[in-house]
């Protein structure tokens, strides 16, 4: 089940993002109210509460609100959690140079994966994929992440299969990925257009200034994710057995990065393959990627 939109949460995130764009001068109550498309009277209790918690500070004479010291602790905690990216970036750049492909890193979530870093190949589209974009863990999407997810996520993904045949195929794909250390995700025309549309929608969501428009776009994104679930019976996403001399239409190859305690902290992926790539090349590329992911894990 897709999560229900939460206007209150959207409003809070939009507020923090807006003030973060003007870190030194801040925003007045009226400016914040206009940005959120609410009245100042509606906005003021939220600002007062955030100020009392230290998330915001109010200038005594200019009456502007800026980000407060409590968020410094939050930011430092987030930075520590993403320290793996500092280790991964040089490895990602090397992968890009060795393969000529775009390399991106994804952080795992409960129902989505989010792109945390992108190292683009020469000539790659400048805005796809982009940092912050999310992809649902819903068949036919997800084989690049699910093999290394927790068992609850794996079961939920398999339970969304369109019948026993599709489930068996998905289970086989998981086994193949775990044995080889990497997952290959094929694409169909529908998958390609869906992924591109979700990516473009993420870009538009970032630029929306009004809460009403943002909420409507969020509902549209949820609908597209539900469409992904409806087409989950597509067999275009997984490979039964990789054949060396057969050509494939590949979306991504992915490999996991595990922390010393075994937790999955990052997924490294490559994209930008030729329209047809033979199985021998995919096997070599997958092993190269898996080795690079293991290198990142060993440095943590």
Automatic annotation (TrEMBL):
Domain of life where this protein originates: Bacteria
Keywords annotated in UniProt: DNA-binding, Transcription, Transcription regulation
GO MF annotations, alphabetized: DNA binding; DNA-binding transcription factor activity
InterPro entries: GAF-like_dom_sf, HTH_MetabolicPath_Reg, Tscrpt_reg_IclR_C, Tscrpt_reg_IclR_N, WH-like_DNA-bd_sf, WH_DNA-bd_sf
IclR-ED domain mapped to chain residues: 70-300
Pfam short name (any one): HTH_IclR
Gene Ontology biological-process annotations: negative regulation of DNA-templated transcription
Domain called HTH iclR-type: residue spans: 6-69
PANTHER family, alphabetized: HELIX-TURN-HELIX TRANSCRIPTIONAL REGULATOR, ICLR FAMILY, HTH-TYPE TRANSCRIPTIONAL REGULATOR RV1719
Protein name as it appears in the record: Putative transcriptional regulator, IclR family protein
